Amino acid sequence: MRVVTGTDTGLMKVVDVVKGEVLITIGEQKKGKGLKKIQWASETNDTEVVSLYDDSQIDFYWISTGQRRFSMVSSLNNIQGMYCETTSEDTRNVYVCNNQGMLHIYNFPISKYNLVQPSDDFLANLEKNEDDGLVNQQLGSDEDDDGDDEKPKKRLNPTLGYKVTEDAQTHKITIEPKVTELKLTGGDVSTMVAQRLDSKRLEIAIAGKDNLMKIWDVETQKCVFKAKNVPHDHLNLKQPIWDNGICYLGSSHPDSERMEAMGDAFGNLICNRTAYHQVRYFDRRAQERPVHQYYFEEHNFTAMCPSTVNVHEVVVGTAIGKMFKYNFQEKKNKKINVYRRIAGSVRDIKFHPNKKVVCCVSADRYLRVYDQESRQMLHSSYLLQRLNCLLLTKDRYVNKDDEDEENSEDDDGMFGMNMKQVSYEEDIIDEDEDESPVREQPKKRKLASSSPSGSKKTSSSVVNKLDDIKNRIKKSKLK
Q1: 186-336 in CATH: which number?
Q2: Which residues of the chain have pLDDT under 70?
C-alpha cells in the first residue's frame, strides 16, 4: 500500500508503509512553501495528484514518475480550501476559496496542453494561428530590445479561447486558465469543503470564526443552507463560534455502497469540528441547529474524516495527539475507539478505500497505520519533515506476515512441492512413532511408585530388631 504525504517544507513523498521505504520524493524544500492540501485529480483513478502550497501555487503531478504536469499560481492569498474535479478527459476544474469568502473557479485543458511537454497538436495549432496572422502579437518593439539579451515573448490565443504565453527563447508555454469569481460570504472563512452530490449539483460548505456554516450551490450561486448556533448556556451567554473543519458523512464510501447505506440522506448529514473542542452533527432535513454535540476535554480538534465502515461514524484528531471515533447514532458523549501512541498534533486522517485501515500524520513527523476495529498500530514510518496532509492509493493492502507467506509459497513452488503439507505429514508420522513410549510411561511410574513401599518395609524391620534388643536387655536386668 502506497501513501502520499505532504510536508511543511514543500516536499511530497510516496511511501510504501509495509516496507517503510520512501519510493519517490517530489518537489524541492523551500521555506514558506509548505503543502496545505493534496487531492486526487479524479475520483476514479489515483495516477494524478493536485497539490496546494502556502504561496497559492497549484501543481499537478504524475504520482508514478513524480513529473510535474501543470502548474499555476492563484491570484488569491490565504487560501483555506481547494477542490479539484475532472469534468472530462480534456478539462479540469479547480475551486479555491480564501479567508474572505472569495471563490475562484479555474477551468483549463490539462490533458492536451502540457506545460512541461506540450503536445505536437497544440504546437501545430499555434503555428497555424501565427500563419493566419490572427493572434500573433509582439510584446514590445525591436528598438526596445536592441540592448537587451532577452528575446520578446509572443502572446498567442488558440481557437479554443485559452490565453497562452510562449517564451521565444526557452519555448516554454504558460497557460492562463479561465477564471470565474463568486463571492460567498463577507465573514471570516477558516475551512472550505466541496462535495459533488450528482451530475448537476455541486455544493460548497464554508465556515470560520464568528461565521456559522453555510452551504452554497455552485450552479445556481445561491445559499441553500445556513446553520444556527446552539442555545445559550446556563448563564444565558452566547456560545462562541469558530468552525475549523467540515465533512459530509458517507463521502469516503463508493457511490454504490453510499446509496445502499444512506439513500437520499447523503448530502444532508454533515459534521463539523470547532476550535472549542466540539464536534457537531447536522441533519439538514430536521433543523438548522446541530442534532448532537460532543465535547472533548480542553483541546481543539485539528483533523476529521468520515469512516468507511459505518456512514454514521467519524474519526477526529486533537492538538495533543489524541485520535478517536464517534458514532452519531449514540446520543451519549462516548468515544468508541481510541487510537494511541501519537505524540504530536494530528494533522490529517484518511481511510483506505478497500481495507479497514486508517492512516494519520502528525506533528511528530510520523506516518501511522491503524486497524479500525482492533485499534492496533500496524505500521509507523519516520519521514524527517513535519507532515501536513496525506492521500491513500487504491493498492491492495498486504501485511508483512502475508508477504512472508506469499514469498514462502513462491519458494516452495520452485521445488515442485508444498512444504506445509510435508511438515503436516511428518507431524502425523511422529505421532505414530511416539505411541509406544507413551504407553510405557505408566509402567515407569509404577516402578517409581514401588520404591516408597520398599523403604517402609526396611524401616519396619529395623524397628523390630530394636524392639528385640530392648526386650533382651530388660530380661537380663531382671535375672
Answers
A1: 2.130.10.10
A2: 90, 109-176, 331, 333, 396-459, 477-479
| Residue pair 95/194 in contact by the 8 Å Cβ criterion | yes
Sheet holding 377-382, edge to edge: 346-351, 357-362, 366-371, 377-382
Residue 330's CB is within 10 A of a number of other CB atoms, namely 13
The rounded distance, in Å, linking the Cα atoms of 155 and 134 is 11
Number of C-beta neighbours around residue 408 at 10 A: 12
Long-range interactions of 142-151: CB distance < 8 A, separation 24+:
none
CA count, 13 A, side-chain hemisphere, 289:
7
> 457: which 3 cell numbers?
518395609
Nearest in space to 74 (alpha carbons), one of 54, 56, 98: 56
Euclidean distance between the first and the last CA atom of the chain, given in angstroms as a whole number: 108
pLDDT of 307: 87
> Which sequence spans correspond to the domains of the chain?
122-175, 186-336, 404-433
Residue 94 burial (CB < 10 Å; 0-12/13-18/19+)?
buried
**Ordered strands of the 191-198 beta sheet:** 191-198, 201-208, 211-217, 222-226
Q: How far apart are CA 352 and CA 270, in angstroms?
A: 21
Packed helices 419-433 and 400-414: angle between N→C axes, nearest 10 degrees: 80
10-49 as b/e: b if 16+ CB within 10 A: bbbbbbebbeeeeebebbeeeeebbbbbbbbbbeeebebb
Q: How far apart are CA 39 and CA 52, in angstroms?
A: 9
Residue given cell 475551486 in the structure block: 95
Q: Which amino acid is at 254?
A: P
How far from 194 is each of 31, 47, 217, 247, 380, CA to CA, in Å?
Answer: 29, 21, 10, 9, 31
- Give residue-wise pLDDT tens across range 444-469: 444 444 445 455 455 677 778 888 88
Yes or no: say if 8 and 384 are a contact pair by the CB < 8 Å rule: no
Grid coordinates standing for 380?
A: 509507523
Residue type, 205: A
pTM over 0.85: no
Q: H or E segment at 378?
A: strand 377-382
How confident is the model at residue 121, as a pLDDT?
Answer: 54
How many CB atoms sit inside 10 A of residue 342's CB? 23
